[in-house]
Structures are given as C-alpha cells and as structure tokens.
Write a structure and sequence with these properties.
- The chain is of the alpha/beta class.
- The chain is 26% helix and 19% strand.
- The chain has two domains: 4-194 and 231-301, Metal-dependent hydrolases (TIM Barrel); 196-229, no CATH class.
- The strands form four sheets. Strands 2-4-5-6-7-8-9 form a seven-stranded parallel β-sheet.
- The longest helix is centred in the N-terminal third of the chain and has 15 residues, at 22-36.
- 50% of the residues are buried.
- The model has no long low-confidence stretch (mean pLDDT 96).
Length: 303
C-alpha cells in the first residue's frame, strides 16, 4: 500500500483498520508499528493508524462486519496511542462519551464521530466530550434534515470539528462539495476511503471477509451497500477543484495541510516551508502525478 500510493501523490498516510476481530486489529497495529519504526523505508510515510471501528453503531455499520462491533473502549485506544492516530466512535453508544473523554484526556489520538446513528443533540454531546473530527461526512451517519439536523448538521455547525469528504462524486453528490467547503474551510479534509481493490481492474474483491464488486467508481456489497472506494487522492483533488469555485491552492490544501492539522502533523507536513519535511508532488494540468518527493528523495517518477 505504502509503495503503491506514492504514484497517486501521497507522501504520508494513515493505514486504516475496520471492524474485524480484535486480534486482527491488534495484529494490524503491530504491523504498522514495525513498518513505522524501520530505518530504511521506501513508500509513503505511515503517520499512524486510522482505527475506523470497532466502536460503531450496528445500524450504520455500512460494509463493516456487525459480529465484530464492540462497546466503546477508551483504554484500548490509549494503550495503543503510540500507533493509533485517529479513532472512529459512534457517540450515542453506551459508554461512548466516557471513552471519548478518556482518549482526549490521556492521549493525542484524534477522536472522530462516524458510522453513527446519533441525533443532532447526541452528536453535540460527543463534541463536548472531545470529538474533533468526522468520518466521511454524509456517509454512514444521520443526515441533515430541517427538523432533525443529525450528525451532518452537528459536524457542519461545530467550528472546532474537521470533516472528511470522499470526493469521488459517488459517495457524495458533487453539488455538495462547494457547500461543505464554504462551511468548513480549512477543516475540510479530502480522503479516499480506498479499499484493497485500489489500483486494480474492475472485478470481485474482498473487504474484511465480505465480497465486493468493483465497477468503475462503484464498490458494492452483494446487497447494494457501498463498500469503500477505489478513489485516488489526486483525483479527489481534481474533483473538488472542478466542482467548486475555490482556487487550486485551497483544493490541494484539503488533501495536505488541512488533514495534517487535524492529526497534529502540520509542524512538519502539509505545506512547503523551511524546516518542514521536503514532501513535494509535481502534477500536470490533468492532476496526474509527474513526480512524488518524500523528505527530499524522489520516490515516484512518471517516465
């Protein structure tokens, strides 16, 4: 994964776990730890793990396996805070607010609300407890309605909460890109939500033990549930730029400086400044990657 995504202009990333058996999650944490600690390492830098589950609401599980959903456990995240960079929690679940507070008080892990059936008020309680991020806004959460603003309403109206957006034009209609950007500004973070089929041809693939059919930008379980994406980050930037009136600087910031700020890595990542890592990408007019440079070394070149 780390080697492949440099071709998409990714210089650092958070490999993501999902709702699988706890032992599998722990094994993934250990794998990321081992790779992160290597002296010689070629691919995109691992900043830490994005733990998307297992502390979610079964009613909004999406393509995640319900049998492995667990009650929110702040201690588990704190104990693994050396490698976990952000964690998704459904704030309405029993024990969730206590878990959120425990994580915020005892670690630097970013707490995100997602895969949640929370009401607007329940989501705001989560924010009060320490939620500062939103997992793939609009997807797998209560929608924005005029009498029930839901998690979407809470995320958009909470100034201190950043929001992820899967800008593939399938997960979220492109007509909403401009609205979200105007409301969130530098707290808009482009993500891919890319599954293991990323970079592969259309066909049948596995996601956490479940069969997924990939057809273009559509990734679906057999029952029609959306199952991640095969989006490339440079394509997400292009989609945001082409479907809003923002400048190219803001479009790229949504995939670089904004997420770097969210996970507290902006002291060395996300912008070209003296003293920061020399992470640079060069693109053509179609946003295709010409060159990816990580810490001053060329890691990808499109010959």
């Amino acid at each position: 994964m780390a080697r492949a995504i440099v071709a998409n202009g990714v210089t650092s990333f958070c490999p993501t776990t999902m709702t699988v058996a706890k032992k599998q999650i722990e094994k993934a944490f250990d794998t990321a730890r081992e790779l992160k600690s290597r002296d010689s390492y070629y691919g995109a830098e691992i900043l830490g793990v994005n733990s998307e589950g297992p502390f979610i609401n079964p009613s909004k599980k999406g393509a995640q396996a319900e049998e492995h959903i667990l009650p929110p456990d702040g201690k588990f995240i704190v104990e693994n805070a050396d490698i976990v960079k952000l964690v998704t929690i459904a704030p309405e679940m029993a024990g969730a607010l206590d878990a959120i507070r425990e994580i915020r008080e005892n670690s630097d892990v970013l707490v995100s609300m997602g895969h949640t059936g929370a009401s607007f008020d329940e989501a705001l309680l989560g924010v009060k407890a320490g939620v500062r991020h939103t997992t793939h806004l609009f997807n797998a959460m209560t929608p924005l309605m005029h009498r029930n603003p839901g998690v979407v309403g809470a995320a958009l109206s909470s100034e201190g909460v950043s929001c992820e957006l899967i800008a593939d034009t399938f997960h979220v209609n492109s007509g909403l890109f401009s609205i979200v950007e105007k409301l969130k500004g530098d707290k808009l973070c482009l993500i891919t939500d890319c599954m293991r089929a990323g970079g592969m041809p259309d066909g049948e693939y596995d996601l956490g033990g479940q069969n997924v059919t990939v057809n273009g930008i559509h990734c679906l379980l057999s029952d029609g549930t959306i199952a991640g994406s095969v989006l490339r980050l440079n394509r997400a930037v292009k989609n945001l730029y082409e479907n809003t009136d923002i400048g190219i600087e803001k479009a790229f910031a949504a995939a670089s400086l904004n997420p770097a700020k969210a996970v507290r890595e902006d002291s060395r990542k996300g912008s070209l400044e003296v003293g920061k890592d020399a992470d640079i990408i060069i693109v053509d007019n179609n946003f295709d990657i010409i060159k990816t440079i990580i810490k001053g070394e060329i890691r990808y070149e499109n010959n």
